[in-house]
Specification:
The chain is an alpha+beta fold. It has three domains: 11-95, Rossmann fold; 124-183, Dna Ligase, domain 1, CATH 3.30.1490.20; 187-381, 2-Layer Sandwich (D-amino Acid Aminotransferase, Chain A, domain 1). It has helices at residues 19-30, 61-70, 83-90, 99-106, 108-117, 131-135, 164-173, 230-246, 281-284, 289-298, 332-336, 367-381, and strands at 11-15, 34-38, 52-54, 73-76, 125-128, 144-148, 158-161, 179-183, 187-197, 203-205, 209-214, 217-223, 251-260, 265-271, 311-317, 322-323, 326-327, 341-345, 356-363. The strands form four sheets. Strands 9, 10, 11, 12, 13, 14, 15, 18 and 19 form a nine-stranded antiparallel sheet that branches. A four-stranded parallel sheet has the order 3-2-1-4, with helices on both faces. A four-stranded antiparallel sheet has the order 5-8-6-7. The protein is globular and about 60 Å long. The relative contact order is 0.12. Bound molecules: adenosine-5'-diphosphate and magnesium ion. Magnesium ion binds at residues 256, 269.
């Protein structure tokens, strides 16, 4: 049974106060919901814009009680929320996505098992939790990438390995926590797809975005995905929808895929929340991934999003706030003087290299015009071309 919370008359809570929480709050407020953010950071991007910011740890019992008192439903903005926090909230409130779906997405091993159970191909891999498993690894998986089973993001917790010796050293370097060794695949390019599902089982999707990473962090997303065939696009959407439905997922889910040089499609990982690669939806679609997150948790109707403009998103990392060692403000006026530029900054008080400070969406009449403006923006900001 799923409950409905009509716009304008309910309070929605979010665990986590980062930029994803901030954009969730914006979308919830647009529909007239009050919002509460739980995050330990006094200056969190979402805490700054919510009606209430509970500044406490995610496992703080009093704060969780207060969240239950204040809210009608709760969501999360990051996948590493402690399971006991979700379980505590779920005993009194609708929590979307649910603890079980989040638990699958938190663990690369369970995630891959879930893909395979739904007939969705993923990279050949082996779980390494013991020395014996390490010794028994099939050399077919080399060269490979050793990834911590939990808590990895933006390329952190990953080491490329070519030989058994390197594998041994890498597992030591990762402190022998449970890991997955994945075969290194020959990638042609990377795409991701965002789907949303509500408690009534309605499922909708966005078009796929093609993603370019630099240093393990998303740098550029392009929509429509320039290199993707209609057939592969349809297959990725069907796979993501099957994966979501099989978890009885409620909320927004992103599934990352590799397209290999031989043309095959392989699932990489999934995120139980809106995704960095979906930030373009705010300006280029008639409904954003954040509004779908709100609608899904509130039990409102989901309608198929429509892309009304080709678009490119540039991620804005803290590096842009430095010229050498000197701090600077990036040349926003010059960027905003170009047609179709939409600047989003997250209100983070200090810039650090690699820190996600904002993103820039570029929309326009044609893919070629969008690309031209995006390349000009990159040049103005000192970003590499693409
Ligand atoms: P994260 O949680 O840091 O996003 P991912 O598993 O998505 O971790 O890996 C980050 C990036 O590393 C991917 O986007 C891709 O570019 C590359 N990568 C990861 N796994 C493989 C693989 N098996 N073969 C080739 N490249 C990979
Ligand atoms: Mg990834």
């Amino acid at each position: 049974m799923s409950k409905t919370f009509p716009p304008g008359s309910a309070t929605l809570g979010v665990l986590g106060g980062g930029q994803l929480g901030r954009m969730f709050v914006h979308a919830a407020q647009q529909l007239g919901y009050a919002t509460v953010v739980l995050d330990p950071d006094a200056a969190s991007p979402a805490g700054q814009v919510a009606h209430r910011h509970l500044q406490a740890d995610y496992l703080d019992a009093a704060a969780l009680d207060e969240l239950v008192q204040l809210c009608d439903a709760v969501t999360t903005e990051f996948e590493n929320v402690p399971a006991p926090a979700l379980a505590r909230l779920a005993s009194d409130l609708p929590v979307a996505p649910g603890a079980e779906a989040v638990a699958i997405c938190q663990d690369r091993s369970r995630e891959k098992a879930h893909f395979l159970a739904q007939g969705v191909p993923c990279a050949p891999h082996a779980l390494i939790e013991t020395e014996a498993q390490l010794q028994a690894v099939d050399t077919e998986l080399l060269p490979g990438i050793l990834k911590t089973a939990r808590l990895g993001y933006d390329g952190k917790g990953q080491i490329a390995v070519r030989t058994r010796e390197e594998l041994q050293a890498a597992w030591d370097a990762l402190q022998r926590v449970p890991c997955l060794l994945e075969k290194r695949l020959e990638l042609a390019f990377e795409v991701s797809v965002i789907v949303a599902r509500n408690g009534q089982g309605e499922l909708v999707h966005f078009p796929l975005q093609q993603n370019l990473h630099r240093g393990g962090i998303l740098a550029v997303s392009t929509v429509p995905a320039p290199d993707l065939t209609a057939e592969l696009q349809a297959r990725a959407i069907a796979a993501a929808e099957t994966v979501a439905a099989a978890m009885e997922y409620v909320g927004v889910l992103c599934v990352e895929f590799f397209v290999l040089r031989d043309g095959s499609l392989v699932a990489n990982e999934m995120a139980p929340r809106p995704h960095n690669s979906g930030h373009y939806t705010i300006d280029a679609c008639d409904i954003s991934q954040f509004e779908l997150q709100v609608r899904a948790m509130a039990g409102l109707p989901l309608v198929a999003p429509r892309l009304h403009s080709p678009t490119i998103m540039l991620n804005l990392l803290g590096d842009l706030w430095f010229a050498g060692d000197v701090e600077r403000t990036p040349p926003w006026e010059a960027v905003l003087a170009l047609p179709g530029t939409h600047l989003h900054l997250y209100g983070k008080q200090s810039a650090r290299p690699g820190r996600k400070m904002g993103h820039l969406n570029i929309t326009g009449a044609s893919a070629s015009q969008v690309r031209e403006v995006a390349l000009r923006c990159a040049e103005l900001l000192g970003l590499p071309g693409f």
